[in-house]
Amino acid sequence: MHVGVIGTGHVGLVTAACLAYVGHDVVGMDDDRRKLDLLARGEMPFFEPSLAELTREAQRAGRLVFTCDLDDAVCDKDVAFICVGTPSGSDGGLDLTAVEAVARRVAASRPREMLLVEKSTVTAQTGARIERALAVYGGRGMGRVEVASNPEFLREGSAVHDFLRPDRIVLGVRSDWAEERLRALYAPLVGDAFRCPTHPDCSPVPGGSPVMVTNVETAELIKHASNAFLAAKISFINTVADVCDRIGADVRMVAQAMGLDARIAPSFLQAGIGYGGSCFPKDVAAFTRFAEEIGIDSSLLAAVTRMNRARVDVAVEKLRKTLWILRGKRIGLLGLAFKPHTDDVREAPALALATRLRQEGAETVAYDPHARTTARAAAPDLVIVDDAYQVAAEADALVLATEWPELLSLDWDALKRIMRRPVILDGRNALDRERLQAAGFEYLGMGR
Ligand code: NAD
């Protein structure tokens, strides 16, 4: 099929590369010329495992090209995906300016017959607004352009695998025609014979990845409901962690036992310094705002955000309790990305913690295996060094903020020797407490 992908960021580039990988002809379009220049040279605008290989292979095969001209991504295409950013607006709702701009520009290109698919995360009922924009700006010259919703559930750090081996594919459509188009698009990767190149030995999904067909509004809501639920799980276990701290219980064991209940499941029950990234914070806030707007009690959702923001305070108080005075103390942060295997620092708890510690008068120094460039751009005042040992030198405490595998197996004896005071706050409950204590560290966990 001929596919356009509008917006080639974390979602759009993965979508474009993966659809080209399974055999479609894809044009990726973006407004950001710097990004396009990098892609033209075969370089990646951000770090995502396996994405560079897939993108270059598809470019070499002539199945993936990039452009800054929207017409190229729309004219004569069977399907065009909207993958532009939908950041938080000033009122907590989503800023859908880029989505609206795309709708207007698509209308102006007057495609003959095309399915325009929302893949960006949008508030429910955005599809209807796009339809109206197409009608207003497209006029009579436009052919059949139908709007559909196909929310994306990929996780940064395993995005290629998640796209090619999805837990589920949600198709929010208005007609059989739209459903057939999307089914045909995904057919190459839905079957149980499909092998993901990133994990060739992973077992196939029995019967293939499930496809759910809904109306557009339901599909839009599924994405926000899923993200809000996962965020709620994290805020819930963080509340349990605080209780554990008070009474001397171990949240890891509580979570493990809870997770053995099939109704609860173990994932997203890791207590720590909170969730971040470009999705959870803004999606929970937007869902909260949307519920308020339509007159639904949103207090449960609002509490999820409030609890998450307070994680930084919990971490600061733990450090204060041990170090007494924070002013003048040197505190080293291990990890800056909002989670491992990505260089994305958007809404990263580590950056919020660094800011808070500096406000308290502490000196901060940080290291991340992959997110140094993005973190330097996001936090120019933060001192970022090139390895964990420079972070530990003369430090009064370390904080594990991102559980990168390389940060879990450092030479703790060597680190302890160069620290002023061997205190470690395990902000992700991911370290081997006994090993650290044996090395002479004062170990602080989150609910352990
Ligand atoms: P991103 O910021 O990485 O990429 C967005 C891209 O859109 C940028 O390259 C930007 O230049 C481009 N863009 C913006 N306006 C444009 C326009 N008018 N025309 C053409 N290009 C334009 O964002 P992302 O992380 O890829 O997220 C995109 C959407 O997908 C968001 O709605 C997000 O919530 C959703 N989403 C993200 C993830 C994730 O893990 N990052 C997962 C699922 C869904």
What would you note in describing this structure?
- The protein is α/β, with parallel strands linked by helices and about 450 residues long.
- The chain folds into three domains: about 1-215, NAD(P)-binding Rossmann-like Domain (Rossmann fold, 3-Layer(aba) Sandwich), CATH 3.40.50; about 225-310, N-(1-d-carboxylethyl)-l-norvaline Dehydrogenase, domain 2 (Orthogonal Bundle); about 310-445, NAD(P)-binding Rossmann-like Domain (Rossmann fold).
- β7 (about 170), α8 and β8 form a beta-alpha-beta unit.
- It is about 45% helix and about 15% strand.
- The mean pLDDT is about 95.
- The chain has a six-stranded parallel beta sheet, with helices on both faces. Strands 11-10-9-12-13-14 form a six-stranded parallel beta sheet. Strands 7-8 form a two-stranded parallel ribbon.
- The protein is built from 19 helices and 14 strands.
- It binds nicotinamide-adenine-dinucleotide (NAD).
Sequence-ordered SSE layout with sheet pairings:
Elements: E1 2-6, H1 10-21, E2 25-29, H2 33-40, H3 51-60, E3 64-67, H4 70-74, E4 79-82, H5 97-109, E5 113-118, H6 126-138, E6 144-149, H7 159-164, E7 169-172, H8 176-190, E8 211-214, H9 216-247, H10 251-259, H11 280-293, H12 299-309, H13 311-323, E9 330-334, H14 349-359, E10 363-367, H15 372-378, E11 383-384, H16 388-392, E12 397-400, H17 405-408, H18 412-418, E13 423-426, H19 433-438, E14 442-444
Parallel strand pairs: 1-2, 1-4, 2-3, 4-5, 5-6, 7-8, 9-10, 9-12, 10-11, 12-13, 13-14
Helix pairs in contact: 1-3, 5-6, 9-10, 9-11, 9-12, 11-12, 13-14
Bound molecules: nicotinamide-adenine-dinucleotide.
